[in-house]
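DNA repair protein RecN, Nonomuraea coxensis DSM 45129. Tokens?
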Amino acid sequence: MRPRVEEVRIHGLGVIDEAVLELSPGFNVVTGETGAGKTMVVTGLGLLFGGRADPSRIRPGAERASVEGTLVVEPGGRVAQQVEDIGGDVEGGELIISRTVSAEGRSRAWLGGRTVPVGTLTYLADDLVAVHGQMDQQRLLQPARQRAALDRYAGDELVKPLRAYTQAYKRHKQVAVQLEELTTRARERTQEADLLRFGLEEIEKVDPKPGEDAELREEEERLSHADALRSAATTAHTALLGDPMEAAGGAHDVISLLGEARAAVEAVRDFDAQLAGVADRLAEAGYLISDVATDLASYAESIEADPSRLAVVQERRSVLSGLIRKYGEPSADSAGVLAWAQRAAARLAELEGDDERIDELTREHDELTVKLTDLAAELTRVREAAAERFGLAVTEELTALAMPHARVVVQLTRSADFGPEGVDEVELRMAAHPAAPPLPLTKGASGGELSRVMLAIEVVFAGADPVPTFVFDEVDAGVGGKAAVEIGRRLARLARTAQVIVVTHLPQVAAFADQHLVVEKASDGSVVRSGVTTLDHEGRVRELSRMLAGLEDSELGRAHAEELLGLAAADR
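Tokens:
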């Protein structure tokens, strides 16, 4: 399902007080008397899709002008996703866009119920609508659009070489960036390698081990307090087993006291099972205390004050602390230094391999340059063939649109550098008559001619450069008769693949429409008010008669109107 504009509401814009446009998916035409406000319909659509806000367009006496549009979009499709990405809502496949312009020139925009910058509407509209009018910037006048449209017009023949070129271009750019970094930062990389090498040599000289700093800290504590540790162990041992130099009778050590307690309980344990359990526990306690006393004796004998070893440990800790401060993370230990050394060695190997890497990248860059040159030449060849076909097709369309002497060409120029899409710059040009040189479209055609040129281009591009909605104003300026019929035919043809909205004063164009809207004006004192009405068949006959003969009920005009409607119906 392609997106389309379903309804537009306009308030306070130009002569339009209030109007509602209900649009069909196909060919919609807007007609009305001179001064009724037809052009304001195009202006309103332009505002809706991010056009320039001109406060002079606000209806006299009104505080602001507002335009609200309801679009039908595919739920989950690209447009819906873009709206949801900015926080807007698409409910039931309907998207609401609003725009207001105050008399002071302030402009506000809403998308899916969310306030957005006007530029967001412009960005969204780029893939939704193409407005062709004398005062509008044409979508297809953008160089990037012209090349993209020509590429789609070229068809399958361009797809494979363009895909191959795009892949080669991306790799070519990556290689170029890597070469640039390696060659322009050679001095910085050399300095970095020197610093890494110095750090690795310093760490290698010290040769730290994992957990070594913690072990040394514990050893330093033990050596610094050797006397106190030995004294404490000896005192505890004496308290548990007693001093063998003292008389046995005066001993009050733990083992002796436990022995007395055990002996007292053992004497009567047979009389009470509970007390027997206590006696067993006293025996266990005695064994345990004896083991502890033995460990204390061994520990006291092992502790010796060693000032020379203490000095060695302190020196080693100082060296390790210096490494940790320089190469470890905050609160790191010797393991952090070793981790830094591992990373530094890997980085140094990478830096020391730069020369070899530069040679490899240079070879790859040269090979890719040759490949890109060949692929770019193939793209140019396909584009030149497509450009010639396209120019002939548009020129043929212009002949039928009352511009028999005009000629459209596609000019391809080669840029000096490779681009994402090749080396071709594409520009549509027009020669107004055989002797005139082809000029850019904005310089080679007047406003009315430009709209016809863009119609011819859009008809030829139809299907190749898909845009859901086209808006044309002044597309029939300066033509009539057979040329007007041909314009109607081509607009109807374009409407087979897109929604088309046209403001016209020619009945031959209006007869081909699927939906006919008329802008009616009424006088309220000296103030003109306009509204928009959707016409049925009888209303179309009356409106076409008015456009043909200036009289709504002219029998000749009505007969001619019926004839035009019949011709258009048969052509469709």
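The mean pLDDT is 85.
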